[in-house]
Amino acid sequence: MDLSLSTFFSIALGIGLAAATGFRVFVPLLVAGLAARAGYIPLIDSFAWLQSTPALLALGTAAVLETAAFYIPGVDHLLDVLAGPLAVVAGVVASASVMVDLPPEARWPIALIAGGGIAGLTKAGAALFRVKSTALTGGLGNPVVSTAETASAATISVLAILAPILCLVAALALIIYLFRRSRRAQRSLNRPAGD
Description:
Elements: H1 5-21, H2 26-37, H3 53-69, H4 75-98, H5 104-137, H6 142-162, H7 164-190
Helix pairs in contact: 1-2, 1-4, 1-5, 1-6, 1-7, 2-3, 2-6, 4-5, 5-6, 5-7, 6-7
C-alpha cells in the first residue's frame, strides 16, 4: 500500500472524527455529512448517504436530542453507559467514511482499530471525568462537563476537516490528558475517607 500525503490526511481526518465521537456520537457524523455536502471532504461511495438530506436531518435531530439529554441529571450517566458502544461504532463509521484513498482491506482494519479504539478511549476518559464531577460536585458540575463535551465534539470535528494532522496530534494529547485526569480521579475516589 502506497502511503501518499493525501492518504495520510484521510487517515488523520478519519481518526480525528472518530475521536470526536467519544464526546458526542452524532455531532461528528453531522459535521462530516455537512462538510461532504459542501464539498470540503470526500466520502467513500458506500457512505455517500451521510450527506443526503434525510441523513442530515436525522443526524441533526439526533445530535440535538443527545446533547439535550446529557443535561438531565441521572440520564447523563445512563447515556455514558449506552453511548460507549455507540461511540465505538460511530468512530468506525466516521473514520471509514472519509478514508477514500485506501483500499477496503486497509481501510476497515484502520477504521476498526484506530477509529473505534480512539472513540472508545475518548468516551471512557470523558465518562470517568463525569464520574469525578459527580463525586466532587454532587452532579451540579455535570452541565459544565456536558457543555465542554459538546464543544469538544464540534471543535475536534471541524479541526479534523480543516487541519487533520493538527487534529490527530490534539486528539492524542487530549486522550493522554483525560486519562491522567481520570487516573487521579480514580485514586481520589478509592482513597479512604479521612485521608
